[in-house]
Amino acid sequence: MKHEYAVIYEKTGTGYSAYVPDLPGCITTGATREETERLMREAIEFHLSGMREDGLPIPAPTTEVGMLPVESAA
């Protein structure tokens, strides 16, 4: 079964970090957004593989992501 998990990307002082809210402990970092995305795909696959090996249920994605426009004080 194929799932799509929400991934949160955060800009850091040295590149990017990313995590999957529905898979606690599934995190990665990279120098660029593209590298971080590639590494996150590998991290998710590795994380799910480990869960399968341990006989744990694979959680269905439940996190929803949205963007809200707000006025910022300039």
3D architecture notes:
The protein has one helix and three strands; from the N terminus they run βββα. The protein has one helix at 33-53, and strands at 8-11, 16-19, 27-30. The radius of gyration is 15 Å and the shape is globular. The mean pLDDT is 95.
Short description:
With 74 residues, the chain is of the alpha+beta class. The chain contains 1 helix and 3 strands; from the N terminus they run βββα.
Protein traits:
74 residues; alpha+beta; 3-stranded antiparallel sheet; 1 helix
Task: List the SSEs and their pairings.
Blueprint: E1 8-11, E2 16-19, E3 27-30, H1 33-53
Antiparallel strand pairs: 1-2, 2-3
Structural class: alpha+beta
**Percentage of residues in helical conformation:** 25-40%
Q: Main beta sheet: strand number and arrangement?
A: 3 strands, antiparallel
State mean pLDDT (0 to 100 scale): 95
Helix tally equals: 1
Rg (C-alpha, Å): 15 Å
Distance between the termini: 47 Å
Oligomer: single chain
Beta percentage is 15-25%
Shape: globular
Element pattern in H and E:
EEEH
Strand order of the largest sheet: 1-2-3
* Number of E-type strands: 3
Q: Could you name the ranges where pLDDT drops below 50 across 5 or more consecutive residues?
A: none
